[in-house]
């Protein structure tokens, strides 16, 4: 896991997360509007895990959340960016009072 803010971004000519997210082209992603207390990827499989073979980037564009990565938790607020490394089990938990809107993407 790597935590950054928007100020850490410095794209040259590729995508906005160039130099942070490995890969020169974004290939999938979306904007997720969470309900208060909602846990991302909660129903993906019976074990409750969510793991990728590539990096995934999350940027909080509004609100607050906590990201759980393996056995760690990190508080997030508007403007924070988290890079999840391959093989890290991860979930984003939206704040009860200020639910998160999160941009997520992968690059290759």
Furnish the topology, listing elements before pairings:
Elements: E1 2-5, E2 26-33, E3 56-62, E4 64-69, E5 72-77, E6 80-84, E7 90-94, E8 101-107
Antiparallel strand pairs: 1-6, 2-8, 3-6, 3-8, 4-5, 4-7
Would you kindly provide a written description of the structure presented here, covering whatever features stand out?
This protein is mostly beta strands. The chain has one domain: Sandwich (Jelly Rolls), CATH 2.60.120.10. It contains no helices and eight strands. The strands form two sheets. A five-stranded antiparallel β-sheet has the order 1-6-3-8-2, with no helix packed on it. It is globular, with a radius of gyration of 13 Å. The model has no long low-confidence stretch (mean pLDDT 92).
Key words describing this protein structure:
mainly beta; 3-stranded antiparallel β-sheet; 44% strand
